[in-house]
Design a protein that fits this description.
By secondary structure, the chain is of the alpha+beta class. The protein is built from eleven helices and 27 strands. It folds into two domains: about 180 residues, ABC-type transport auxiliary lipoprotein component (Rossmann fold, 3-Layer(aba) Sandwich); about 400 residues, Porin (Beta Barrel), CATH 2.40.160.10.
């Protein structure tokens, strides 16, 4: 056999080695599967990053990674590996980009060089105790957003893993387990693969599909009071048993990210000892649009300012419902009002402007309900007067009578305000200004009227006893004057995180705040208030530890009679402790402790809560106690036990 030349042996060896390498590739089919990274979802309120939701957003992001890994053969890149490739603070960079393709492109190029073909980013938004997710699929070679998926789940509930898997497979553009590997998307590189990684403007994101959301809940709460009415004819009316039954419905339509319309309403049927009440109200109802860093909403809205939980000094845009301030569902404690809202954003900066053409006061009862202004410690002359007046009305006319008692000239001038927010790497801070009205009125009782009713023996009084009082009316002397005071409000807040601890500061100053004396007259003064919060975030909705310290300073010395619930310097704290056992048993304690004046409010509760749909059955108690004319003393007869059933849908 003739000998082969050396160059022929070299060529033959080269071919055999090439085939060996090729055979080796065929022996490892898994290498052909794409590599996908799933970033933590950015928690948002509107469009701004909301750090207080960071832990629970990160937990759900981890679940989505697991779901995707279960349903595909693609390699899911661990977050630790992503940190090694792009740096330990890459999440901060991603959040700062606000899902902007151009901003994210440099980071995507680094991942592409490391062989990661796809990335899933997105947002985590809380809406009526539901979580709305927007999942964006990114092709790392170009930085282009190629797919958008919308997904919704109950907050803290069990994740629908099958539906979540479909959405994640679509956003990641990878096949289901056992399917054919996804073919790489064609890219014109001009023959030089390094050109693909060169800076270039990525294509615009794909259109977001329309979203229609209908949700709501039914809630029934029955409270059993511990107080005894007694035989005092001047005792303030009291309901030993109260049952509140509510149906809340909301609908939301979103057309891409540009247009939205929201409407919600509340049906309420209440049963008390001696009467019933039915009310149907419109809650939120607005339309809005968003275009390149500018958003506009017009209509009935609830706008939450501030970072406090139990107490938020800057939450002044909407009036409050004070008819049952502790047991009312948290979604109903603030009343939506008509607002024109504009939001402007540029990078980490955001400006919100508000215009409120109409004034709506707080919801409150003057007399006849457990949380009304007139309580057992109110002077006898005022309780006696309302005892006689109540004789003119049937109990079924309680609600119209409250409107009559509370007749006050309403402001006709508009209100408005602004909020500036800066979102940094591990903190965000906001500045506030609002020019509007106190939502509770200033009340001044005419001295002649006060003297006339003080001279009457109200324990034996009859309608004819009111003759001296009616005589004052004939003389044109009004028993009292009431009006809503114009005020300036300025404030700031900030939040940052240290590991699992979120630290929040919320502080504000108002040049005119309204407080009340035991005789129901008001006291107007400037006030400064600050709240410092420490929140231990576990990432699970059913596990929370929150502690708040509160300080309030009045700029003027209170009158000799004192103020209900406040002194010139008032110190206190509030806490919420919530923990879940066996996935469905939730124990919770809410508490308020004031040192000056001394007040204790305790609300322990035990609940069975199904995480899959939020169905809840809870039993709890309310305990109030305190020094004379403290809030705990003034409303102490509301000590009660209660049972609540809530079914979200």
């Amino acid at each position: 056999m003739p000998r082969l030349p050396a160059f022929a042996l070299f060529a033959l060896g080269f071919v055999l080695c090439g085939r060996a390498f090729a055979d080796g590739d065929e022996a490892r089919p898994a290498d052909k599967q794409p590599a996908v990274a799933v970033f933590d979802l950015r928690p948002v309120r509107g469009t701004q990053t909301e750090l207080s939701l960071l832990k629970e957003a990160a937990k759900l992001s981890s679940e989505l990674r697991d779901v995707l890994g279960e349903q595909t053969d693609a390699r899911i890149v661990p977050i630790a590996e992503v940190k090694q490739l792009v740096g330990p603070v890459f999440r901060v960079t991603v959040f700062d980009c606000h899902e902007n393709p151009t901003c994210l492109q440099p980071l995507m190029r680094k991942l592409a060089k490391a062989g990661i073909q796809r990335v899933v980013v997105g947002t985590y938004e809380l809406s009526n105790n539901r979580i709305q997710l927007t999942l964006d699929g990114v092709e790392t070679r170009t930085g282009a957003f190629t797919k958008v998926e919308l997904f919704e789940t109950a907050r803290g509930g069990d994740l629908d893993r099958a539906e979540a898997g479909k959405k994640m497979l679509s956003a990641a553009a990878v096949p289901a387990k056992g399917g054919e590997p996804a073919a790489p998307e064609p890219v014109d590189t001009g023959g030089d693969t390094t050109d693909v990684l060169a800076p270039m403007p990525p294509p615009p994101p794909p259109p977001i599909p329309d979203r229609i959301q209908v949700l709501g809940w039914a809630r029934s709460e029955t409270a059993f009071g511990f107080d005894e009415q007694g035989t005092d004819v001047l005792a303030a009316p009291y309901n030993k048993v109260e049952s509140r039954n509510q149906l809340y419905l909301a609908a939301r339509y979103q057309r891409g990210k540009q247009y939205e319309a929201t409407a919600s309403g509340l049906l309420e049927f209440d049963v008390f000892d001696h009467r019933t009440a039915y009310q149907a109200t419109v809650r939120e109802m607005y339309v809005g649009g968003s275009w390149d860093g500018f958003a506009l909403r017009i209509g009935n809205q609830r706008i939450a300012w501030g970072k406090g939980d139990a107490i938020s000094p800057n939450d002044v845009v909407n009036p409050r419902d004070l008819r049952d301030p502790l047991l009312t569902d948290t979604e109903l404690r603030r009343l939506p009002t008509f607002i024109v809202r504009a939001d402007l954003e540029s990078g980490p900066h955001a400006l919100q402007l508000l215009f409120q053409p109409f004034f709506i006061p707080d919801g409150y009862d003057i007399n006849g309900s457990n949380w009304s202004i007139i309580q057992p410690t109110t002077p006898e002359s005022i309780r006696g007067l309302f005892r006689v007046i109540n004789g003119f009305f049937d109990p079924t006319l309680h609600d119209p009578a409250q409107k009559l008692f509370a007749q006050t000239t309403l402001p006709t001038n508009p209100s408005g305000g602004a909020r500036y927010t800066y979102t940094g790497h591990n903190f965000d801070a906001s500045l506030y200004y609002h020019f509007g009205y106190n939502t509770t009125p200033t009340v001044v009782i005419n001295p002649q009227f006060a003297g006339a009713i003080a001279a009457i023996d109200w324990r034996t009084a009859t309608p004819t006893t009111l003759a001296p009082v009616l005589g004052l009316l004939d003389m044109g002397i009004s028993p009292y004057s009431a009006a809503f005071t114009r005020r300036h409000h300025v404030g700031f807040d900030g939040v940052t995180t240290f590991g699992p601890i979120a630290v929040k500061l919320d502080a504000a100053y108002e040049n005119k705040a309204v407080y009340y004396q035991p005789d129901i007259e008001s006291f107007v003064t400037g006030q400064a208030q600050g709240v410092l919060s420490l929140e231990y975030q576990t990432g699970e909705i059913g596990k929370l530890l929150l502690l708040e310290g509160v300080y309030t300073h009045l700029m003027h010395t209170p009158p000799e009679l004192g103020l209900i619930g406040y002194k010139r310097d008032t110190y206190g704290s509030a806490m919420t402790a919530r923990w879940t056992f066996f996935d469905v048993i939730e124990a919770e304690l809410r508490a308020v402790f004031e040192l000056e004046p001394k007040t204790i409010v305790l609300q322990p509760q035990i609940a069975y809560r199904r995480r899959s749909n939020g169905f809840t059955v809870a039993a709890g108690a309310l305990y109030l106690h305190g020094d004379p004319i403290s809030l705990g003393d003034y409303y102490r007869r509301n000590n009660s036990a209660y049972v609540t059933i809530k079914y979200p849908f």
